[in-house]
Design a protein that fits this description.
132 residues, 3-stranded antiparallel beta sheet
């Protein structure tokens, strides 16, 4: 599923924290950095597509975290993690919080709706008005 798009993209990116994200604050900072990166890429006309599978399942395998009822899933996740670490190194993988493909391409034909704050508040609380 990811192999052919990976070969056809302009580049791959990996965002790294200074130290492995552990706390909620670490993860919030990582999310802010990822959002800033994505918005900047979009502003300059680049397309970005997450490819988080290697990071996520590699981490599950390394931590021995159960995530599937399939008996071989953990071993496969460990293999993904080892393969990624053999290319990038264990320290890089531990600090990585976002992977993606980036490059030029056509604008997607479908996007999620971007609603303004007032509209979201109205949905959450129908009695809310613009003057509140």
């Amino acid at each position: 599923m990811d192999f052919l798009p990976a070969l056809s993209c302009g580049a791959h990116c990996l965002l790294l924290a200074r130290r492995p994200p552990v706390t909620v604050d670490d993860n919030v900072l990582a999310g802010r950095a990822m959002q800033r990166f994505w918005l900047t890429a979009t502003r300059i006309g680049l397309m970005l597509q997450p490819e988080m599978t290697p990071l996520i399942f590699g981490r599950y395998g390394a931590e021995g975290r159960p995530f599937s009822s399939r008996r071989d899933a953990s071993a496969l996740a460990q293999r993904v993690g080892r393969n990624l670490a053999s290319v990038l190194g264990n320290d890089v993988i531990a600090r990585g919080f976002f992977m993606g493909r980036i490059g030029h391409g056509q604008q997607p034909k479908a996007r999620s709706l971007r609603r303004d704050l007032w509209e979201l508040q109205q949905w959450a609380n129908p009695n809310h008005s613009r003057t509140d």
